[in-house]
Fold this sequence. Notes:
This protein is α+β, with helices and mostly antiparallel strands and about 450 residues long. It folds into 3 domains: about 5-215, HUPs (Rossmann fold, 3-Layer(aba) Sandwich); about 250-320, Uridine Diphospho-n-acetylenolpyruvylglucosamine Reductase, domain 3; about 325-449, Phenylalanyl-trna Synthetase, Chain B, domain 3 (Phenylalanyl-tRNA Synthetase, Chain B, domain 3, 3-Layer(bba) Sandwich). The protein has helices at about 5-15, 30-45, 60-75, 85-95, 95-115, 130-145, 175-180, 200-215, 220-245, 260-265, 270-275, 285-290, 395-400, 405-410; strands spanning about 20-25, 45-55, 80-85, 120-125, 165, 250, 255-260, 300, 305-310, 315-320, 325-330, 335-340, 340-350, 360-365, 375, 385, 395, 415, 420-425, 430, 440-449. The strands form 5 sheets. It has a 5-stranded parallel β-sheet, sandwiched between helices. It is elongated and about 95 Å long.
Amino acid sequence: MNLLTEFVKNITQHKLFNKKDKLLIAVSGGIDSLVLCELCFQSGFDFSIAHCNFQLRGIESDEDEMLVEELGKKYGVNVYKKKFDIAKYIADHNANIQIAARELRYQWFNELIDAEKELNFKYILTAHHANDNIETVLMNFLKGTGISGLQGIQSNNAGIGNRIIRPLLFAKKETIVSFAMQHKLSWREDSSNESIKYTRNYFRNELIPSIKKVYPQVEENILKNIERFKEVHELYNIAVKQIVDKIIVRKGAELHFPILKLLKAPALNTILYEIFKSSGFSVQQIPEIIKLCDSDSGKFILSDTHRVIKNRQWIVLSPINSPDLNLYLIEEGVQQIQFQGNRLLIENKKDNNDIIFDQSIAQIDSSFIHYPMVLRKWKQGDYFYPLGMNKKKKVSRFLIDNKLSLIEKENIWVVESNKKIVWVVGWRIDDRCKIYPGTKSTVQLTISK
Length: 449
């Protein structure tokens, strides 16, 4: 293989970038990134160099930095360098070395592009190659990342702001080494690459060589499978979207799923994973979400950013903190909730049966309350027993009788406990939960701006 010819062909065929684009190449000092610089130089691309010194290997790290400085002089390009206190980052973020280095690296690259706006850098180039992709696919398969992970590393559109391009993914390591020796390039070997304490090194130095003893063509077969899985993933996404679009109801920041339709979806575990993974839910939580469909109303599951809650015959996905929510949980002990420009105060009062005649305040017998309560927008089909009445009434009829306009109706909220509405907020409580002279404790709800 003529690496230079194939390099230019790959860039042109996949429209990765062109001669007008200014490029920032991530250079470690190792053979892969040095070959990438040489290829870009011989191809006539406009580039600068960025180097991260993580200070993990003492004098070796400093020698890497000096080599990169010499590389800048050789090609007559700018070199940007930064030293990182990776040990502190690991301690502060509870991350391993590889994850910490990756996060710091790409964060700085993007900051650098934003800071050097007059240079108009368009893309960050990294020297990932075919063998990196093989290792990644094997690791993803064993970790259980699903069909998306079997595509491996992508040539583009995989970085923050779609800035990262990996133009060497077509080339195997042996071709890169051959090119470096042919052009008498001087590179540095990272001694940590031989340590199998890092997962990728174990795959590279131990696992894959062992598999090759049984399946000599394993690397070529995996690379072919990567291309197949890319096409499979396209078809997969189309099928998933068609199924999800039939069952999803969007309400502002919330996604609502009718339980009956949801449970009839084909490949339920896969569909649920695709729906909820972007909201921080893991594959291990999918069985919990399925169980939620048969649980009591008000039960929920949390990720770091979202919650999935059972609300009657619906499963509702919503951000934990968003001004656009149409549903909030009121846990026991919560004293106030901010929602859409309003504030709901929750107070527990004992031996205080003085009735307050104020529509902005609801006094509810504590014995009627089951947590979590739910604060939500009213909907068609809702009913309650308005205070002073011994028969139920639909909320829609109650609002009509009170001559609310269409806009006013759209802004009506209810508080629900154990699947029963206890208060049409700002209007009327349910007669069944009113306080009596013998009421021992009261939950007082107050609505205010």
